[in-house]
Design a protein that fits this description.
alpha/beta, Chitobiase, domain 2, Double Stranded RNA Binding Domain, seven-stranded mixed sheet
């Protein structure tokens, strides 16, 4: 029997076969296609605008480790500076002739594109080149090691200055070829050619970052022969300018000072100066980035001889300078005075420190800030110091000028960070204001600890520190006892002066156990960066952050000197933080000197709280404010310490009538004979010094009238 196939069925079968065959043909892998310029797009007359969303970074399919690293760095920098997320793909296509001529590509290294091959053929010696060819940006180098240098140059000179809103701009007909590069031998056939030197002042947090360079070199060459030491010997006159050395961070060498002068506040770099290679940044955080960048260059330079011995080199034409993008520096540049240093204040906050500044310089700069689109949001004057805050909605900066010293501090932060409540709010008076000194859980071994509860006239509270873990319940009971029955205690602000256990532990315990029983608006602190404050990890390792999670609606407020916080009838003037200690903070040994020092004005009287401030911060306060520090009450700093007290001059400037001693009675008796404590006892009389022991003491304000 014959089987007849109808023509229509035969046609359908044929179409299906063709469809299946097409479906089986090799196609481009996902993510390998290139972006194209939309129809009608042309380069602007004043330059070529690169829309990052339409571009793709193309690297060779079989890229070297150095090329892969360069591509990753290019993506990282473009994403951070311009915004968005540019893709990286390899150059594989079935047929390069199928690639549209208007493909939006950044070609990196020896790709299979005609433009890459053409530019590479033009290079000789140790050079790199960057060219705009149609809609393609071509980056080529005579060796893959040089690609990272090409990327760094491209980002620093062209992307960073014009980036924003998802774009950056290149000159029309852009075509750049570098000069000839030199190769500095860091390791030759397994033998290090340079000695590493790092600052003797390195604290336990930053030291491992310096010694990491030795470890990385040892790992690359397969032995432990890389030498390293501190710069301590140079003080004794043993410094030898002819000795090949790699100088890290703020070592005390003229070459480092010369390199620093070439850096802006947010920059870091690698410099070849004489027989020294300087690897540094304006801040310690930036110096760490400089070391990481130096290691990247070394890794891209690895070669082996016929015996397997490793050589490392640094390719160098001119200083290699990079931008630390974690800082907000999009503010008007200060052209007067001298940038004498920069300081990482923690939390992405940067301080730029200028000396030789006049009042006219300061006023002119503030005027320029207004013209640049920054609004003056706050201003305060204290003694010979002027504090002004500006914001453009994206960046907030604090311009504080000390006329007596000719010093300007520009402190920048993201405007998204919590802003300080500086405006006076209306309130209803329900009680007399008071201050309660908490009796803490002192023991024979724990005689320190500090906690104060201020009640404002509207019944709300401000708390200073709080003491040990065991003291959290006492704080809750104190708040409840001062709050009308059936009412939730309302804490306007909880101020943590610094990160020592006898000051912050009660706060953490309180948040973990009693968060639902109170309302808290702000946690106020200012913790230095981890490379300056050895107790920074307490702030970041979960203790404080987890406590804030429990306090759901609470805002974290990083305060700065010159700010006056206003809650109901209380004014809390921030006099000093670790930021005012710079440059003295570079030699900081104790977290105590990072204490927030503030003065409360409540009930017509003033109370100054220095936390655990010691000599360094005392000297800064006296220098900045002098007799402006005069207050009715003083909290005796650092529990009246014998070895590490606040200075006698500080107490003389405060000239108080009463004092609070945050420690046990035994501690008070033990420390009574110090010059500072003797001065207070003699001036005030023992009966006017209130010791925090046995039971809480509440004093209504105004007191003694």
């Amino acid at each position: 029997m014959k089987i007849l196939v109808k023509p229509a069925a035969l046609l359908l079968s044929l179409i299906w076969v063709i469809f299946c065959l097409n479906g089986c043909q090799e196609t481009e892998s996902p993510g390998r296609d290139s972006g194209t310029v939309p129809e009608g797009t042309t380069a602007p007359e004043t330059g070529f605008a690169v829309d990052v969303s339409r571009y793709v970074i193309i690297r060779p399919e079989k890229a070297s480790a150095a090329c892969i690293q360069a591509a990753s760095e290019l993506k990282k920098q473009i994403d951070a500076l311009a915004g968005g997320s540019i893709a990286i793909r390899d150059d594989w296509v079935a047929d390069t002739s199928d690639i549209p001529e208007d493909a939006c590509e950044i070609l990196l290294g020896t790709t299979n594109r005609t433009e890459s091959k053409g530019l590479a053929a033009e290079l000789s010696g140790m050079k790199y080149a960057i060219r705009l060819s149609g809609f393609r940006i071509v980056i080529s180098a005579s060796s893959d090691q040089l690609l990272s240098y090409a990327v760094d140059y491209f980002v620093a000179e062209y992307v960073a200055p014009s980036a924003g809103g998802g774009t950056f701009k290149l000159p029309e007909n852009f075509d750049y070829t570098s000069g000839e590069h030199n190769s500095l031998p860091i390791v030759a056939s397994g033998v290090p050619q340079y000695h590493i030197v790092y600052p003797d002042s390195a604290n336990p947090a930053i030291k491992p970052e310096y010694t990491k360079l030795k470890n990385e070199i040892d790992k690359l060459i397969g032995n432990q022969s890389q030498t390293i030491a501190t710069d301590l010997l140079s003080k004794g006159g043993s410094y030898d300018s002819s000795k090949p050395e790699i100088l890290l961070g703020g070592t005390r060498h003229d070459e480092v000072a010369e390199a620093m002068e070439q850096l802006k506040a947010d920059e870091y770099g690698i410099f070849a100066i004489g027989n020294k290679i300087v690897v540094c940044g304006r801040t310690r955080s930036s110096s760490v980035l400089a070391i990481e960048k130096f290691v990247e260059h070394l890794k891209s330079s690895v070669t082996k001889d016929d015996k397997g011995k490793v050589s490392l080199s640094l390719v160098y034409e001119r200083p290699l300078i990079y931008k630390n993008t974690s800082y907000k520096t999009d503010i008007p540049e200060f052209a007067s005075g001298r940038l004498s240093g920069a300081y990482d204040c923690g939390d992405g906050v940067l301080e730029m420190y200028y000396t030789g500044v006049t009042q006219a310089d300061y006023d002119s700069y503030c005027e320029a800030a207004g013209k640049a689109g920054f609004s003056l949001t706050y201003s305060h004057t204290a003694a010979s110091n002027t504090f002004r805050t500006y914001s453009d909605g994206k960046t907030r900066f604090f311009a504080s000028y000390s006329a007596g010293e000719g010093v300007l501090r520009l402190i920048t932060e993201d405007a998204a960070m919590t802003s300080a409540p500086v405006e006076t709010a209306t309130y209803s008076e329900v009680c007399a204001p008071s201050v309660t000194q908490l009796a803490l859980s002192y023991t024979k071994d724990n005689t320190n600890g500090m906690g104060y509860v201020l009640q404002l006239s509207d019944g709300s509270f401000v708390i200073y520190d709080g003491g040990f873990t065991a003291d959290a319940e006492n704080i809750l009971n104190t708040l409840s006892g001062l709050t009308p029955a059936g009412t939730t205690p309302y804490i306007r602000a909880w101020i943590l002066t610094h990160m020592h256990g006898d000051h912050y532990q009660a706060f953490v315990e309180f948040a973990n156990n009693y968060a639902s029983q109170i309302k808290l608006d702000y946690v106020v602190l200012n913790v230095a960066d981890k490379y300056y404050d050895v107790d920074y990890n307490i702030y970041t390792n979960g203790k404080i952050s987890s406590a804030l999670v429990k306090l759901k609606a609470t805002r974290l407020l990083k305060v700065h000197a010159g700010t006056v916080l206003r809650f109901a009838d209380a004014e809390i003037e921030i006099l000093c933080t670790h930021e005012e200690l710079y440059p003295g903070v570079l030699g900081l040994e104790y977290t105590n000197d990072t204490s927030i020092v503030s003065r409360v004005r409540l009930g017509g009287q003033t109370i100054i709280f220095p936390g655990d401030m010691q000599t360094l911060e005392s000297n800064v306060l006296v220098s900045m404010y002098g007799t402006y520090l005069k207050s009715d009450f003083v909290q005796i700093s650092h529990h009246g310490s014998i070895k590490y007290p606040a200075t006698l001059e500080f107490y003389q400037m405060v000239s108080p009538t009463w004092a609070f001693f945050p420690g046990s009675k035994s501690r008070y008796a033990e420390n009574a004979g110090t010059p500072e404590n003797s001065y207070l006892i003699k001036r005030l009389g023992a009966g006017n010094i209130f010791v925090a022991d046995s039971e809480n003491r509440t004093i209504s304000l105004p007191f003694g009238r």
